[in-house]
Amino acid sequence: MRLKVFFATVFTAATVLLCGNLHAQVAPAAKVGGLPIAIGVGISDYNLDYGPGRRMQGAVVRAGWNLFHGIGIDGNARTIFINTPSQLTRMQQSTFLGGVYYEAPPVWRIHPFVRVGAGIGLIEFPSRNPFYTRDTFSVWAPSGGIEYPITHKLFARAEYEYQFWHDYLGPNDLTPQGGTIGVTYYMSGMHRRPHSNY
Question: What domains lie within the chain, and their CATH numbers?
Answer without folding.
Answer: 2-192 (2.40.160.20)
